[in-house]
Amino acid sequence: MLEKTTLSSLVSLGKPITLPAASKAVVKKKNALLIIPDSGKKILLFPTDSDTVVKVSLELRSKGLSPLFFNEVGRITKGDLGVEILYTSGLCFADAQCVWDGFFEQADKFQNPDEIKKKFAAIDGVNTVSIEFIKL
Question: Is the distance from CB of 49 to CB of 30 less than 8 angstroms?
Answer without folding.
Answer: yes
